[in-house]
Design goal:
Blueprint: H1 2-22, H2 29-35, H3 37-52, H4 58-72, E1 75-76, E2 81-82, E3 87-88, E4 95-96, E5 101-102, E6 107-108, E7 113-115, E8 128-129, E9 134-135, E10 140-142, E11 146-147, E12 152-153, E13 158-159, E14 168-170, E15 175-177, H5 186-192
Parallel strand pairs: 1-4, 2-5, 3-6, 4-7, 5-8, 6-9, 7-10, 8-11, 9-12, 10-13, 12-14
Antiparallel strand pairs: 14-15
Amino acid sequence: MASFLGAFRAMVREDLDAAMARDPAAETRADVAFNSPGLHAIWGYRLAHRLWQRPGARPAARLLSTAVRGVTGVEIHPGATIGRRFFIDHGMGVVIGATAVVGDDVMLYHGVTLGGRSMQRGVKRHPTLGDRVTVGAGARVLGDIEVGDDAQVGANSVVVKDVPAGAVATGVPAAVRFPAVPGSDPYDALFAEPAIFI
């Protein structure tokens, strides 16, 4: 238990650092810790996911995730796999399905859905996001598809096919293109791609 608490504290610190780095409105770590529903949802998910890994505790994991959804407006299934330094800006309306896989340093805006396109049980139905992926507000990433490392998904886009690493996907259905300057910093590229925010 002591090792779990130490690891959990380290994750909390990392998540706070990620929030401070990605949220220009964040003034202090305390402000973010107390007032960020996205962070509260992530922390609730981390506890629920730990419970989910013990089959006898799965009902408790679902209850915890339901309570977190009620408080934050963010629904993350405890079976999802989420990496380090994950950040959800604003939070409200985010849905992450049971078989979704999210890499490290990923950022989602409000209203994002990482959803399924199949009703089949026992198979992977939700997307896999690589490392350093950014998904704009209201975007829908649907099905067992892959969004590669450093890719960006524009606001309100609907993505139903793989997105290569470093690409930008915008529109309904999403069209994929590559930034004008290959190898540019993904965070800086956000400002060159207004469709990420629109």
